[in-house]
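Exercise: predict the structure of this protein bound to VHF.
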Amino acid sequence: MSHPNWKRVVIKVGSALISPNQQGCSSHYLLSIAQFIVRCRANGTQVVLVSSGSVAAGAHLFPEQEKSDIAVKKAMAAAGQTEMIATWDRLFDFPSAQMLLTHADLRDRERYVSIRETIFSLLDNNILPIVNENDTVTTDKLKVGDNDNLSAMVASAAEADALIICSDIDGLYDKNPHEHDDAKLLKSVNTIDQSIYDMAGGAVKGGVGTGGMRTKIEAAEKAVSHGIDTYIINGFTELSFNMLLAGENPGTHFVPHAKPMQENVHWMRHTSNAQGEVIVEGDFDASLDSDAEQLTSSEIIDVKGEFSVGDTILVRKEDGTKLVKAKSNYSSCLLNFIANQENEEFAHEFEEKTGPIISDQHIANLEKE
Ligand SMILES: Nc1ncnc2c1ncn2[C@@H]1O[C@H](COP(=O)(O)OP(=O)(O)O)[C@@H](O)[C@H]1O
Ligand SMILES: N[C@@H](CCC(=O)OP(=O)(O)O)C(=O)O
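Solution:
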């Protein structure tokens, strides 16, 4: 876990650190984070910054408006984003670059690959990528929704060794310490299961944070399955960063999987969204192997939703058991047509000619969730 071994890290900074009073941006807490970034780079560690705070930073420009109104929030984000980037940029004597992403970008394989290339190209040229969600264009369907999950997706895309989530609290406690005086800090988490999720509450009501601990655990789960060391640390104190640089754990460390998922399987599982569902009989045991069992139309009971060739679909059993997520080589329309064929020989010949229903190159086994 010692810091000098990291080739690349992603640092996620929450809104409370950027705009503690919602009166624009403050560099008060950002100075020690910037110092950490500078020292990482001096040690030869590449850094990608995922920064929240555009909504919080822009809030003061809309004094008369209802802050929960979506259109107002988007306007706050648009206005606050420039101030947030300018505040970071002032703290560095090297160039930074703004990357505004949505889930619609990350779940599209082509755009995802393009995002990866841009990150690598910026890093190769010693430019600091500063990523945020593109709040002004998102809708419920298109957004990641919180920067904890976004930072895990970015860490996977960037092939980072570590993800450091800077929060307003020392790490993950066994219960919300703002509500329970006897809450205890977990120094290390080996396995993220339901008992870990049960410890997490949401963000403080009326505060500037979005996801609370739940989204940080979701992020950690995504990252560790890609072999990424993940930390939740207190970003208010400089000591956290000094400890990280000394190879010590200042908060909660989520231990990465010893056998990380392959990059494209990880993307399919944790970043891509299923556009539709195919309900099948029995267990369909998928694997990333062209000799593996193929899904055939005779096993399909139902096709749900509308999807096109190349979209990700979820293959599940009638009882709801999720089997695999995969790229579909058929549209929902064509799959419905072939699955409803009474002439099995025709269906079989059609599939032989058209090729496998789901791609054996883009598939993630869901371990019968
Ligand atoms: N088990 C827990 N351990 C630590 N914090 C928790 C827990 N459950 C809920 N929280 C809340 O999560 C908050 C941190 O998340 P959030 O407000 O979204 O901040 P950020 O801006 O850093 O993302 C904490 O301040 C705390 O109120
Ligand atoms: N994209 C939003 C960030 C949303 C978010 O996840 O905030 P936080 O919980 O403070 O990390 C913004 O810039 O305000």
